Amino acid sequence: MNNSNQISVLHVASFTGNVGDNANHNGTRTTLEENTSYKYQYTENEIRKYYQNYNKADELHFDDEFVRQANEHDLVMIGSGNFFELWIEDSKTGTTIDIETDRIEEIKSPIVFYGLGCDPYKGIPGNNAEKFQNFLDCILEQDHCLVSVRNDGSINHIKEHFGQEYASQVHKVPDGGFFTEVDDNYHPELDGSGPLIAVNVAKDMADLRFPNARTEQHSYTSFTSEFADTLDQILSSYPESKIVFIPHIYRDLEAISDVLNNMETMNQRSRVTAAPYLNGEGSERYIFDTYNKCDLAFGMRFHTNVCSIGQITPSLGLVSYPKVGDLYKELDLVERTIDLKQKGFKYELLDKVEQTFDNSPNITTEYKEINENLRISVKDFHKKIETVVTKN
């Protein structure tokens, strides 16, 4: 370790292509420095370059070179991100972190698995449960490893699939997006005097979001029609309001277009705008300031909801993938969610928009209390990181 209080960190995570990930790192790094006595200098390894299907000249592997690089740093941090998904059949751990347990033992620097999502919703094929359990056995018994999952229901999934003994050894930490620091930007897309409503709509994983398994459930096409009709009704009910669509990944642009194409022409032309599609470090400071400046936010993406709550913007969780619902359950806010899979969600969403505008001061007070508790929780975990770094 350096003689000064500066720590070199090898950080393996997603840094490009999803502004929610950038918000996560923003909040994590800011609070980590606030809560510990160290300063952190980061070497960033993009997790996508470790994917089995990456296959480009700059691909990376959890191999001897990774071990060498890890041991050259004072700390290895993997995450945050949904890296404990359990569906990757050819992975040695069943997850995105495709590493031999022997490699973990060869790394002498402390390793923090930071705020990872344990996600069984895409399935747990073959012997992936056994592989992941063996991986947990390895990293939990290592003195230089600290294992944590984010507050999105992941700890409950570990308990359900692997037992309380494992869950009790894994820490739960708030997603870094709750603590995102934003810049006070000028937003031409927010021009207007009435209520400003931020909307995020997603199309990726459409087969999971909208399987159309039963006639009362939506397909993606029928969803976009009902969602557009709902937005038109909101604009009619609040004549001074405007809607701003906020894309997080490039696929969101397609979803925004699909919804817009189903909306009334005059609303398309004069009552709806869209924030720019941005990515990379710093992009979150503009995008999540957009959420910060809105009177209401509702969306399908995890970080739409995390960061809105963190910015004390009244939010509604649009549940088409279970992680959003799990997040609100963790925060005891399940009444602020709407199931988008069911046809007729329009009426519940309209009611909850009205309730939100009527009770905005109470909601913001509740969000402030939630965030104060989250800051206490993340500080406690960061002190554990400091202990592990100092010890090793």
Would you kindly provide a brief summary of this structure?
The chain is an alpha/beta fold and 392 residues long. 44% of the residues lie in helices and 18% in strands. The radius of gyration is 21 Å and the shape is globular.
Please give the domain count. 2
Q: How much beta, percentage-wise?
A: 15-25%
Radius of gyration from CA coordinates: 21 Å
Helix content: 40-55%
Q: N-to-C SSE series? A: EHEHEHEHEHHEEHHEHHEHEHEHEHH
Question: Given the C-alpha coordinates, what overall shape results?
Answer: globular
Strands, count: 12
Mean pLDDT: 95
CATH class designation of the largest domain:
Alpha Beta
Largest sheet: 6 strands, parallel
Could you tell me how far the N terminus lies from the C terminus, measured between alpha carbons in angstroms? 9 Å
Low-confidence stretches: none
CATH topology of the largest domain: Rossmann fold
Q: Tell me the number of helical segments per DSSP (H or I, 4 or more residues long).
A: 15
- Could you give the order of strands across the largest sheet? 2-1-3-4-5-6
Structural class: alpha/beta
In CATH, the architecture of the largest domain is 3-Layer(aba) Sandwich
